[in-house]
Amino acid sequence: MAKKSSKSTTSPGLQLGRAVEWPDAPEKARLDRVPNPQAGTDYLVRFTVPEFTSICPVTGQPDFAHLVIDYVPGRWLLESKSLKLFAASFRNHGAFHEDCTVMIGRRISDEIKPKWLRIGGYWYPRGGIPIDVFFQTGRLPKGLWVPDQGVATYRGRG
């Protein structure tokens, strides 16, 4: 019988596995990273945030988006609970669609330093105009399969 390790699989500094307060602003939110156990292999990780919300900085009205975040990890993986908390921190944050989308992409990229990252921000219409925002860092490793982000274009006219 193999000896079971008493070492925890999560670091004590992570938000994972314990109660934490919801951050009330993106700059107060922490993004956690964990070591990539497959660091020598190129593969794609996708996070989908279908109910993202923020506030219009001009009108104060809520804005809604479906975000798709694809990345090719290097040494680090993005820990999903911290991403959930980070996304929720935008609920009362006033910023334009473009700013929110690019800010999220840059922040994730700065924290985990992926080989490649792209984020698609598919914003729901306000005033009849949907806005889609795309941001990318790095170069996609050769030969890596990246599926379509799978978000249908807006079909509000029939």
Automatic annotation (TrEMBL):
Q: Tell me the InterPro entries matching this sequence.
A: GTP-CH-I_C/QueF, NADPH_dep_7-cyano-7-deazaG_red, QueF, QueF_type1
Q: Which reaction does it catalyse?
A: 7-aminomethyl-7-carbaguanine + 2 NADP(+) = 7-cyano-7-carbaguanine + 2 NADPH + 3 H(+)
- A GO MF term: preQ1 synthase activity
Instruction: Write out the entry's keywords from A to Z.
Output: Cytoplasm, NADP, Oxidoreductase, Queuosine biosynthesis
Give the chief site where it resides. Answer: cytoplasm
Q: Which Pfam families match?
A: QueF
Residues the entry annotates as binding substrate = L78, E79, S80, H97, E98
Q: GO:BP terms for this protein?
A: tRNA queuosine(34) biosynthetic process
Q: Which organism is it from?
A: Bradyrhizobium quebecense
Q: Say yes or no: keyword 4Fe-4S present.
A: no
Pathway(s) where this gene product acts: tRNA modification; tRNA-queuosine biosynthesis
Gene Ontology CC terms: cytoplasm
Using the UniProt annotation, give all residue ranges assigned to the region (Disordered).
Answer: 1-33
Q: What family classification does the UniProt entry report for this protein?
A: Belongs to the GTP cyclohydrolase I family. QueF type 1 subfamily.
Superkingdom per UniProt:
Bacteria
Gene name as annotated: queF
In UniProt terms, what function does this protein have?
Answer: Catalyzes the NADPH-dependent reduction of 7-cyano-7-deazaguanine (preQ0) to 7-aminomethyl-7-deazaguanine (preQ1).
Q: What is this protein called?
A: NADPH-dependent 7-cyano-7-deazaguanine reductase
Enzyme Commission designation: 1.7.1.13
Among its keywords, does the record have Chloroplast?
no
Q: Where in the cell is it found?
A: Cytoplasm
Which residues catalyse the reaction? C56 (thioimide intermediate), D63 (proton donor)
